[in-house]
Amino acid sequence: MGANLTFPEVDLPGDRTFILTGGNGGIGYETAKYIAAHGGRVVLACRSEEKAKAAIEEMQKEYKDEKQKTSPTAANAGASNGPDDLNIEFMKLDLESLASTMEFIDAYKAKGYPLHSLICNAGIAYAPYGETTDGYERMFQINYLSHLLIILHLTPLLRASAPNSRIVMVSSVAHTHGAFDLDNIQGKRSYNRIYFYNHSKLYQVMSMYALDRRLKSSGIGVFSLHPGVVETGILVNNWTDSKVMVPVVHGFMRLFHVYRNPYQGAATTLVAALDPKYDGESALYFDSCKPTPPVSLAKNVENQEALWKYSLECLKDYINEDVLQGVEGEVKSEPDANLPSEGENLKSKQDVKDEATHDTDTGEGRDECEKEEVTQNTDAEEGRDGCEEENEEVVQQSEDDIIEDNQIITEVHATDTDDVKEEGRDISQSDSEDRQDGGRSTDAADNAGGEN
Ligand SMILES: NC(=O)c1ccc[n+]([C@@H]2O[C@H](COP(=O)([O-])OP(=O)(O)OC[C@H]3O[C@@H](n4cnc5c(N)ncnc54)[C@H](OP(=O)(O)O)[C@@H]3O)[C@@H](O)[C@H]2O)c1
């Protein structure tokens, strides 16, 4: 599946600085290595210091070996005339915790580095229902919300490096099966691990547009992308509860040559982050290294703004008017009465930690949007049980290679009809509302699939 991939040929100045989340393995590993081999400085923001440092060591070793080769392959392009050593350093970031994310933001600012590109790559997929320490559904927070917190705080640094600084969201073609339903955004009413991955990837594309509106004249390009179906751990990491999942998925993907390897998987991210062809551009979704239209639901401005407002509410303990002012630009409307006013301090880290401990015990301290959902949550436990049952049965079959835009999209169908029906109801309902809004054309209830 490596056809039509391009790798941007660039010569980066040594102070051109990239933050890449989750680069200790998979697509992020190859992305970080390529950028550093072409001269850039990469901050690898990962949750495990041990894994990240081992990955950096391995990158250095591979790079040195490649540099010695007389005829570089595509995989080591840049290495023959690149720097002596890769400029990559680890910084701690656990996206599952807003407090940890805030610590990363503060630590990054304290370094005094510029920031030219923020690559939001880290993610998990197909996780059984679980909540973060902040009380949010895990894929919502790890894949989307915590990245937004980083964006909000580091936009001033990106502005200072403009023009041609970039925000890159590693989304997925799975976003085309996502739905936007604020009433069940945390999965309290019903939950399906495939759908909620799809939803989290849709939020990334929706937020690309919301950010672009706000950053119009900033010189910051905001991009999102699908890297392809790539052989990394993400497909199976969270299916450890199913004995059939790993062999079935890997077997199918390998048999039909669906997988890209991680280096090929990095190509589209690299185009979005580096390719000078897209200087001055913004709000583009890439697939196989080319701008491609995302699902129309992602373009619904009303939904984008509703998601934006909800997200700020979720983050309100970690942002204030100063932070928002740095992002909102021309779009800024009324000050948000719920946010601390300009100059007012955010919560101290200790406050946040104390409250997190307290919240775990009492369930108190969530914001209003969360509380509303808790009151609606009459059957959350049933939803979770249903999901656990589904884990045993789901993805018994991987079928229907759909040819869309000259690429194979692999449908992995859920077979637990109860969960599918339950979730399908929610989705088809919001889907029909979106259609009335001129929203997306995909009928999610009929396409109950997921692509990673
Ligand atoms: N592989 C595919 O086919 C595919 C297709 C479409 C989209 N994508 C997207 O591509 C991106 C990269 O995925 P991948 O395939 O390279 O998967 P991967 O190898 O599993 O890499 C995911 C990275 O995210 C990190 N991560 C997970 N939870 C984190 C947290 N709480 N805080 C900080 N980092 C965390 C992981 O760290 P640990 O090693 O510590 O877990 C890992 O470094 C994801 O956003 C994924 O949704 C992948």
Specify the helix fraction band.
Answer: 40-55%
The level-1 CATH class: Alpha Beta
Major sheet: size, sense and barrel closure? 8 strands, mixed
CATH topology: Rossmann fold
Which ligands occur here? NADP nicotinamide-adenine-dinucleotide phosphate
Secondary-structure element sequence?
Answer: EHEHEHEHEHEHHEEHHHHHEEHE
- The domain count comes to 1
The average pLDDT is 77
Q: Count up the helices.
A: 13
SS class: alpha/beta
Secondary structure tally: strands: 11
Low-pLDDT segments: 347-450
Task: Using the CA coordinates, give the radius of gyration.
Answer: 21 Å
CATH superfamily: NAD(P)-binding Rossmann-like Domain
What share of residues are in beta strands?
A: 5-15%
**Terminal Cα separation, in Å?**
15 Å
Coarse morphology: globular
Could you please describe the fold and organization of this structure?
There is one protein chain. The protein has a single domain, classed as Rossmann fold. The chain has helices spanning 26-37, 49-68, 98-111, 138-161, 193-214, 245-255, 262-274, 301-314, 321-328, 349-362, 368-376, 380-393, 417-436, and strands spanning 17-21, 41-46, 87-92, 117-120, 165-170, 220-226, 284-287, 290-291, 398-404, 407-413, 449-450. The protein starts with 16 loop residues before the first strand and ends with a strand. The strands form two sheets. It has an eight-stranded mixed β-sheet with strand order 3-2-1-4-5-6-7-8, sandwiched between helices. It is built from 13 helices and eleven strands. It is 43% helix and 12% strand. Residues 347-450 have low confidence and may be disordered. Bound molecules: NADP nicotinamide-adenine-dinucleotide phosphate. NADP nicotinamide-adenine-dinucleotide phosphate (NAP) binds at residues 21-22, 24-28, 46-48, 51, 93-96, 121-125, 142, 170, 172, 226-227, 229-230, 232-234, 237, 452.
